[in-house]
């Protein structure tokens, strides 16, 4: 019997008990659907995070700040003895001497402090004032909904507005906000006196995990805000920086960057690239999708027992038929292949239908999400599909189906033809 004949015969045999076969396929369908949809969510979110990394350039910048003393990437409990000569803030301030230490590390070109900006409010065309979360512009180009990056070479005050401020400041959309002026209130920490500054909106940013939720000031505006905020403060409290940017040499390998991070740790600092910061989100997403995938795996495990049961009952129902086929010359291996093909067909139909259903539902969810609750996240497809995911799910399920079918197929192959013909 040829391969095609074995395959056709296996397909016909599955139709002998349609109810049993369909129920087994449904069990596999549920597992395939769950796993493929979960992998799609993981792929979609990670693709968006990759876009975020690409949008801000390569890992040529390190954000460096003082360690809490534990040398751990994640926050830890680190209770230290009180030092009356050093405040908690001072313990985390990066001094000029610290910057010299950082700059002395091999492959670091220059180090620049990131100013600590404190603005009271921002006001647009209405009389309403809103709290403002601002940050000085670095050398990272943010993805913009409209406009351009701020110019750090000019004396004029420029801002890139976070998209959430567009409507509440009285602008119809991002395009209308461009080249409009906003008023920013800044108070002296020492005297409490407030000054107002007028800045021009040159861009509106998309949502980003990089500097999320912050309005970006150009260097001229940043320096003025710091100047007002520190007015009247003692000299030892001025020009404090809790984080600096370390500019690395170009085209460094990931191994070299890891070496730089280790050197920073040895000196009491921690360095993080943009990718490191975004990878924290990846860890959370991977953990959540991992749990969901586990549920799909449990469903597939249950389905594998369904395949075993279905084929065992099929062997029992067709015992005399198997005996007749072996008496007519069908070899043990071909009997084994016949039942193995039945298991693979059950797995294939379950996996294929589950993948198609997940793909269809995923497209519906993506269309709905992009026009509703994910509208602000431009370019974000919640569920992403790829050929690698498709082939992985299909391959795993076919393997499980084959292994599950091995026991009943082996039993069928071992049947003695004479005894099988006598079976009632």
Automatic annotation (TrEMBL):
It is a multi-pass membrane protein. Residues 21-207 form the MacB-like periplasmic core domain. InterPro entries: ABC3_permease_C (IPR003838), MacB_PCD (IPR025857), Macrolide_Exporter_MacB (IPR050250). It is found in: Cell membrane. The chain crosses the membrane at residues 21-39, 287-314, 335-359, 379-404. Residues 294-415 form the ABC3 transporter permease C-terminal domain. Keywords: Cell membrane, Membrane, Transmembrane, Transmembrane helix. It comes from the Bacteria. PANTHER family: ABC TRANSPORTER PERMEASE YTRF, MEMBRANE COMPONENT OF TRANSPORTER-RELATED. Belongs to the ABC-4 integral membrane protein family. This is FtsX-like permease family protein. It comes from Enterococcus entomosocium.
């Amino acid at each position: 019997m040829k391969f095609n004949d074995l395959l056709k015969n296996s397909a016909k045999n599955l139709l002998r008990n349609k109810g049993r076969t369909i129920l087994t396929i449904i069990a596999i369908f549920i597992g395939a659907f769950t796993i493929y949809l979960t992998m799609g969510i993981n792929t979609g979110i990670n693709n968006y995070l990759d876009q975020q990394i690409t949008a801000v350039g390569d890992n040529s910048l390190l954000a460096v700040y003082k360690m809490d003393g534990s040398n751990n990437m994640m926050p830890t409990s680190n209770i230290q003895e009180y030092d009356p000569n050093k405040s908690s803030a001072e313990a985390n301030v990066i001094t000029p001497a610290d910057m010299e230490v950082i700059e002395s590390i091999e492959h670091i070109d220059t180090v620049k402090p990131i100013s600590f900006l404190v603005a009271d409010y921002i006001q647009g065309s209405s009389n309403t004032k809103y709290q403002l979360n601002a940050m000085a512009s670095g050398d990272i180009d943010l993805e913009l909904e409209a406009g351009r990056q701020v110019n750090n070479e000019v004396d004029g005050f420029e801002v890139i507005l976070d998209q959430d401020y567009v409507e509440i400041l009285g602008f119809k959309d991002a395009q209308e906000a461009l080249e409009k002026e906003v008023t920013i209130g800044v108070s002296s920490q020492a005297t409490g006196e407030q000054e107002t500054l007028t800045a021009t909106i040159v861009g509106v940013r998309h949502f980003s995990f990089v500097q999320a939720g912050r309005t970006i000031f150009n260097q001229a505006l940043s320096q003025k805000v710091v100047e007002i905020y520190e007015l009247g403060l003692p000299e030892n409290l001025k020009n404090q920086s809790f984080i600096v940017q370390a500019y690395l040499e170009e085209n460094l390998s990931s191994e070299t960057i890891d070496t730089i991070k280790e050197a920073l740790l040895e000196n009491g600092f921690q360095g993080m690239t943009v990718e490191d910061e975004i990878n924290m989100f990846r860890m959370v997403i991977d953990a959540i999708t991992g749990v969901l995938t586990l549920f799909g795996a449990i469903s597939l495990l249950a389905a594998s027992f369904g395949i075993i049961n279905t084929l065992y009952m099929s062997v029992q129902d067709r015992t005399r038929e198997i005996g007749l086929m072996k008496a007519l010359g069908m070899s043990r291996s071909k009997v084994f292949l016949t039942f193995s093909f039945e298991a693979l067909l059950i797995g294939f139909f379950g996996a294929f239908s589950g993948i198609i259903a997940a793909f269809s539902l995923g497209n519906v969810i993506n269309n709905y999400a992009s026009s509703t609750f994910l509208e602000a996240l431009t370019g974000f497809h919640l569920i992403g599909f790829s050929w690698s995911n498709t082939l992985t799910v299909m391959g795993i399920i076919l393997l499980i189906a084959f292994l599950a079918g091995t026991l009943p197929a082996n039993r069928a192959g071992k049947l003695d033809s004479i005894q099988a013909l006598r079976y009632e």
